[in-house]
Amino acid sequence: MIASISNRATRHQITDVLESPFPLVSRQVSSRRTIVDVSGVKIGGLNIVVMAGPCSVESREQLLPTAHAVKAAGATILRGGAYKPRTSPYDFQGLGVEALRLLKEAREITGLPVVTEVMDTEDVDTIVDYADMLQVGARNMQNFALLRRLARVNRPILLKRGPSATIKEWLLAAEYLLAGGNENVVLCERGIKTFETETRNTLDLASVARIQELSHLPVIVDPSHATGRRSLVPAASRAAIAVGADGLIIEVHPDPDHALSDGPQSLDIQGFADLMQTIQRPLRRV
Ligand code: PEP
Ligand code: MN
Fold it and tell me: Which ligand number lies closest to the CA of residue 252?
C-alpha cells in the first residue's frame, strides 16, 4: 500500500494520508481526479456520461430496441440487470446468463459498452466474459467477500451506495477495491433510506459534492432508484448535474407499465429522449 501511495504523493503527504481511514481513495493521495475508462468511455472528465437501459433484461424484443433508442438519445453506456437483487424471493430474479448473452449482442450491434450487476462471487468469472463494467448493487456495498474478489478483476467497478450507508462507509467499501488492486472505481449515489415515503429513497445530492471533496474517484447519480417515480427523474437528473456529478444511470423501458422490475421509475423511450434534450449540451460537468 505504501508503495502505491508513494507513487502518487510526495513524501511529506504520506503521514497525512496514512491517517486517513481511506488513504487510497482519499483526495489527499491524488489531487488530480481519476478518470475511469469503460471500454473507451471516460468517466470523470469534463463530459457527463449517461448510462441507460432497462432495470432487468427481459427479452431480445425488449433489450435491442431500448439499446438503439438510448444510444440515439445520447447515452454512451448500456445498463441492464441479469442477476436481480429483489426484496421478495417470488419476484422476477433476472434471466442470468441468457441476459448476459443478450447484453453482449446489444453491445455488438450498438457498440455501447455494458454495465451489469454482480451479486455473487460465484458469478464473477462468467459476468467478466460479457460485461465491460461490473456493478455492485446498493444491497451489496458491504459484501466484503465480493469486494475483495472484484478488486482482482480486470474490469471497472460501479459501486453503489448502500441504502443506509454513510459517506465514510461508502468510501471504505471503495477502499477495499483499491487496496486489493482495482483502481477503476466509479461511485454511484442512488438515494438513502430516510423517514420520507413519498419517494422510494432520498437523493443525497450533498453527498456528491462531499465525495468530490474527499475523494479523487468519479461519482455519478441514479435518479431512478433515488426517486422511484418516473415523473421525478428529469428534475433529479438536472439537479445531479448541477451539483457536479460525473454522470447519470437511468432506467429506460419500452413499455414501463409491463416491466418485470422497477416499471414505476422507468422512463419510456420518448421520456428518455425528452430528458436528454433538456440536459445541457454538450454534456459537461459544471
Ligand atoms: C439496479 O440498478 O437495478 C439496482 C437494483 O440498483 P440498487 O442496487 O441501487 O438498488
Ligand atoms: Mn432497478
Answer: 2
**38-68 residue pLDDT tens:** 999 999 998 999 999 999 999 999 999 999 9
Q: How far is the CA of 256 from the centre of ligand 2 (A)?
A: 12
Give the domain ranges of the chain: 1-31, 32-278
Answer whether 0.70 is exceeded by the pTM: yes
CA 103 distance to own-chain centroid: 17
Q: Is the dihedral of CA 104, 107, 113, 114 positive or negative?
A: negative
Q: How many angstroms separate the alpha carbon of residue 57 from the centre of ligand 1?
A: 13
- Among 171, 259, 161, 248, smallest CA distance to 202 is for 161
251 alpha carbon – ligand 2 mean position (Å): 7
Ligand nearest to the CA of 141: 1
Residues 222, 213 contacting (CB under 8 angstroms)? no
Quote the pLDDT of residue 6: 44
Cα separation, 156 vs 109, whole angstroms: 22
* CATH entry 3.20.20.70 includes domain 32-278: yes
Q: Whose grid coordinates read 466509479?
A: 186
**Number of the ligand 1 atom closest to the C-alpha atom of 160:** 9
